[in-house]
């Protein structure tokens, strides 16, 4: 097992070197980020200037075209200092690849201004709807949980059309939506995951696509071989797994904050010399080591499938969902123990350990980390009635 600070294989070391020069600033702004319920403008400018929100942007539109491990490893390292910043790098930054998978006219439209943009998604429709009209769709209603909404240049909206079984995905420029100030939460406040409202906007047919078609595997988009695969492989296992970098990094940041607290001590106490503290730290460290094993395995499996332009078999996709959810369980257990070891003093709002703990609770509630859903999908793929299923 490599050390916690060792970069995951296949992640671009130059990107990580640039990121490592900035994480101290983001950690210094973490309290402000939480208080303002959005990333500071200075942080977003740094992310864009350093290319950290464009990591997954397609080369054909001027993007660097990095592989998936670079995106999630950058998010992991940022989340150690500021979980909300790590979330925006991994989840929002990953949307640049989704934008490149839109129909040709739509992709060319959204990238007209280049790749130095923020692409927010809106997939949780409160009452958002798509009504088919001559030549396209009329979009109206409200969507929830749009991370980085305040900084978005484009919103990628999805929801049901006239037929409840049909879903539609369209891009809308930020000027066509109204951002609602309702993101008042006790974890991941800094992501600015606000509601948005759309007041009857027409979207031409050429800009719309079904999510299933957008996420499906496709023929190479270029004229020759390219190392960039995120616009060709079936996309769902990748986009659903962007959360593992921020989750693991948040837990690692909590562990570092706890060690700092115990090393400093209070009132002459030396917590690191107490057997109960040492035992608890050891078990939490073991859980994080196991989480890192799962993380590295998922990165390797997804990257290998991507570079081979190979769709994951259903049992492999189910195993990745299982491991994604179990990684979150390990991280939550590890940090919960740290909070209990630290006691009441760790629960002040501006305490770094408390902030990471709050943020991790919110991250772990994400639907792609839900244990029941992922466990059921894995069981269906791995365990057959005749006993010949293959657990992976």
Automatic annotation (TrEMBL):
Keyword set includes Oxidoreductase: yes
A Pfam family assignment: Acyl-CoA_dh_N
Entry protein name: Acyl-CoA dehydrogenase family protein
Keywords from the UniProt entry: Oxidoreductase
InterPro entries, per the entry: Acyl-CoA_dehydrogenase, Acyl-CoA_DH_C, Acyl-CoA_Oxase/DH_mid-dom_sf, AcylCo_DH-like_C, AcylCoA_DH/ox_N, AcylCoA_DH/ox_N_sf, AcylCoA_DH/oxidase_NM_dom_sf
Listed PANTHER family: FLAVIN-DEPENDENT MONOOXYGENASE, OXYGENASE SUBUNIT HSAA (PTHR48083:SF19), MEDIUM-CHAIN SPECIFIC ACYL-COA DEHYDROGENASE, MITOCHONDRIAL-RELATED (PTHR48083)
Acyl-CoA dehydrogenase C-terminal domain ranges (all copies): 245-370
Family: Belongs to the HpaH/HsaA monooxygenase family.
Domain Acyl-CoA dehydrogenase/oxidase N-terminal, residue spans: 29-93
Keyword Oxidoreductase in record: yes
């Amino acid at each position: 097992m490599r050390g916690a600070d060792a970069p995951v294989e296949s992640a671009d070391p130059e990107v990580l070197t640039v990121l490592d020069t900035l994480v101290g600033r983001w950690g210094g702004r973490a309290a402000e980020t939480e208080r303002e319920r959005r990333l500071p403008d200075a942080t977003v400018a740094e992310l864009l200037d350093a290319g950290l929100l464009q990591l997954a942007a397609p080369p054909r539109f001027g993007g660097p075209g990095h592989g998936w491990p670079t995106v999630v490893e950058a998010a992991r390292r940022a989340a150690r200092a500021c979980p909300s910043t790590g979330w925006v790098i991994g989840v929002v930054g990953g949307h640049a690849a989704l934008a490149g998978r839109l129909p040709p006219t739509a992709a060319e439209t959204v990238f007209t201004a280049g790749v130095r943009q923020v692409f927010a998604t809106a997939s949780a429709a409160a009452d958002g709807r798509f009504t088919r009209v001559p030549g396209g769709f009329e979009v109206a209603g409200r969507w929830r949980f749009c991370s980085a909404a305040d900084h978005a240049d484009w919103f990628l909206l999805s929801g049901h059309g006239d037929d409840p079984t049909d879903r539609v995905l369209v891009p809308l420029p930020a000027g066509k939506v109204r951002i609602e100030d309702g993101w008042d939460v006790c974890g991941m406040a800094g992501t600015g995951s606000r509601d948005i409202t759309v007041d009857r906007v027409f979207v031409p047919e050429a800009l719309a696509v079904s999510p299933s078609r957008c996420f499906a595997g496709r023929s190479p988009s270029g004229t020759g071989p390219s190392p960039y695969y995120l616009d060709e492989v079936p996309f769902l296992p990748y986009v659903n797994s962007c959360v593992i970098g921020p989750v693991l990094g948040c837990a690692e940041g909590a562990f570092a904050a706890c060690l700092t607290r115990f090393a400093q001590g209070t009132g002459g106490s030396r917590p690191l010399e107490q057997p109960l503290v040492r035992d608890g730290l050891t078990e939490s460290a073991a859980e994080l080591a196991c989480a890192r094993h799962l993380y590295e395995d998922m990165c390797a499996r997804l990257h290998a499938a991507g570079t081979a332009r190979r769709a994951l078999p259903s049992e492999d996709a189910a195993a990745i969902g299982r491991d994604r959810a179990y990684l979150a369980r390990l991280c939550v257990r590890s940090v919960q123990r740290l909070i209990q070891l630290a006691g009441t003093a760790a629960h002040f709002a501006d305490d770094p350990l408390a902030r990471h703990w709050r943020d991790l609770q919110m991250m772990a509630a994400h639907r792609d980390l839900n244990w029941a859903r992922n466990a059921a999908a894995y069981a269906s793929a791995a365990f057959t009635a005749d006993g010949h299923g293959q657990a992976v």
